[in-house]
Specification:
This protein is of the alpha/beta class. The protein has eleven helices and ten strands. Helix 3 packs parallel to helix 6. Bound molecules: adenosine-5'-triphosphate (ATP).
């Protein structure tokens, strides 16, 4: 059963474009990302890679949650440093683990996503969020902590959309969800992208993520090892051998398989 029919209205229409150049970020003296250059074009971009590759660190750095070095531009303008200014600039993050307030209702959680705007605009956006996510209207007064994992993820996405972002970042939205809910969530991210909000998504579910994405980057140990159109990446040796378990390199580690294979692949450029 599909829950969501109508197109999303909340969100951006300005076709946000993020350019990241020589980005570095980490924790204290421990640098996780070094000299990372990538481009998030309008549409849906997925970041893939093994545990500890630095995917979450990338989203944190782009959200201002940890300090960053290098240059980041959103539609040609330097991205601010502070999280509140980044949100004001039109970027929103759905963090890993959703980070809802479990003792607050769905409505209260959603209203928090509209903290930047006045009461009347917030009410208008809430109504729109319920139109965009009809399932949540039925649950408006339910405590968020009593909902299923998939429903909570919907609330987290809807809360981020309450800031009407030009660019939405999602950190492993399918984590811990049943397969049907994974499909549902990924279909929602696709529709958000189709409706004009640029989407940058970190995912462990490589096959399903590449099926909905336009483009992908593969990150390993803080460095890019492959990138390209999602359909090409899905067919590439680097992805098939290291992430989808195909081919004779099954015994090879993800890192070494990716690095050796990608050098021979002509499809690396976006
Ligand atoms: P996962 O899929 O496991 O979440 P990831 O690609 O998102 O992996 P990150 O969470 O970005 O990886 O972690 C990258 C590296 O940074 C890891 O070595 C991790 O141990 C380290 N790290 C993450 N958070 C912190 C922190 N708060 N303090 C110190 N090191 C951290």
């Amino acid at each position: 059963m599909m829950f969501f029919g109508p197109p999303f209205v909340l969100g951006g229409s300005s076709r946000a474009h993020l350019q990241v150049q020589s980005l570095s970020a980490g924790y204290g003296a421990f640098l996780v990302l070094r000299d990372l250059t990538l481009e998030i074009k309008p549409g849906l971009t997925v970041i893939l890679g093994p545990n500890g590759a630095g995917k979450t660190t990338l989203l944190k750095a782009l959200s201002g949650l940890i300090p960053r070095g290098g240059e980041v531009q959103l539609n040609g303008e330097a991205l601010p440093e502070k999280t509140s200014d980044i949100v004001k600039g039109g970027m929103a993050l759905v963090p890993e683990g959703r980070q809802l307030f479990p003792q607050m209702t769905v409505t209260e959680n959603l209203e928090l996503g509209g903290w930047l705007v006045g009461k009347a605009e917030r009410a208008r956006r809430l109504e729109q969020a319920f139109n965009d996510f009809p399932k949540l209207r039925e649950r408006a007064e339910q405590l968020a902590g009593t909902m299923s994992g998939g429903e909570q993820q919907m609330v987290a996405v809807a809360r981020a959309m309450m800031s009407a972002p030009r660019l939405l970042m999602l950190d492993e939205p399918s984590l811990g969800l049943a397969p049907r809910m994974v499909d549902e969530l990924l279909a929602i991210t696709r529709r958000i992208a189709d409706n004009g909000t640029t989407v940058l998504m970190v995912e462990q579910n490589v096959k399903k993520a590449l099926a909905v994405a336009d483009r992908g980057y593969v990150l390993e140990r803080g460095t890019l090892v492959a990138s390209g159109p999602a359909a090409l990446l899905a067919r590439s040796t680097v992805i098939r051998e290291a992430y989808l378990g195909a081919g004779a390199a099954g015994a090879t580690t993800a890192t070494s398989a990716a690095k050796t294979t990608v050098q021979a692949e002509p499809e690396r450029v976006l």
